[in-house]
Design brief:
alpha/beta, binds adenosine-5'-triphosphate, binds magnesium ion, six-stranded parallel beta sheet, Rossmann fold
Length: about 220
């Protein structure tokens, strides 16, 4: 069972958007569970909308609760045969973050390219180093501008990540309205615009991450 924890010390970096889109893309052919450790419960609220709109389908499933319940939730996920668990976490330094980092087979850090986001990456890096999970951490460039400043934004983000010795995956998610629009109606871009740019980016990212996470879970 792969466990991908999505973390970042900057609010609004795209953690929940990323968790839900990866979950929907993966749920097409795998059993997927999203664990919402954020007290804002955005993922759990979104799931309620999805169930209403799509007729109570449970793909992906969702579980929410305090971080103390994380081991129980993971045990249940394993028992139910989940192949992928995505853990959405709160933005601020919170007691939930370290357990989520420790439980992960891969740690995902979405990074937007504003100066504030780049500065906050240092705080995320500190946390990642503290939990000793740098080797399994992947930064994902998110909301990459689609205009003429795209290349400079990418360069700047890569430079910041490299300075902090964090690896960046080659797949990017562009700044596209569709990422938020679909979620409003309980759907992801791979469902609303199957052949659109956003859907292609999410699919490529999901495939890339799946191939990258070669963890052997001894308890499988
Ligand atoms: N690739 C993208 N393109 C356009 N907008 C995006 C993209 N990714 C995220 N957003 C927007 O950025 C905002 C914050 O995203 P999201 O809620 O996923 O971040 P978060 O890290 O979970 O926030 P929080 O820290 O509050 O939990 C939302 O309005 C979302 O629609
Ligand atoms: Mg969130």
């Amino acid at each position: 069972m792969k466990v991908w924890s999505i973390v970042g010390q900057k609010g609004g970096s795209g953690k929940t958007t990323l968790a839900l889109h990866l979950a929907i893309a993966a749920a097409k052919d795998r059993k997927v569970l999203v664990i919402d450790l954020d007290p804002q419960q955005s993922a759990e609220r979104w799931h309620a909308i999805r169930q209403r709109v799509t007729g109570a389908k449970d793909d992906p499933s969702i579980a929410a609760g305090p971080y103390q319940k994380l081991p129980d939730m993971l045990r249940t996920a394993r028992k139910l045969g989940a192949e992928l668990v995505l853990i959405d976490t709160p933005p601020k330094l919170d007691k939930a973050i370290i357990p989520a980092l420790k439980a992960a087979t891969m740690v995902l850090v979405p990074l937007k390219s504003s100066i504030l986001d780049l500065q906050a990456l240092e705080d995320s890096a500190d946390l990642i180093n503290l939990a000793k999970v740098r080797s399994k951490t992947a930064v994902i460039l998110n909301a990459v501008p689609t205009g003429q400043n795209r290349e400079s934004a990418i360069k700047e983000s890569l430079r910041t990540a490299s300075r902090l010795k964090l690896e960046v995956v080659p797949e990017r998610l562009s700044e596209l309205q569709t990422f938020s629009q679909g979620l409003r109606t309980g759907r992801g871009v791979t469902e609303t615009e199957k052949n659109g740019t956003a859907a292609k980016e999410v699919s490529a990212l999901y495939q890339g991450l799946w191939a990258r996470d070669d963890s052997e879970d001894a308890r499988e």
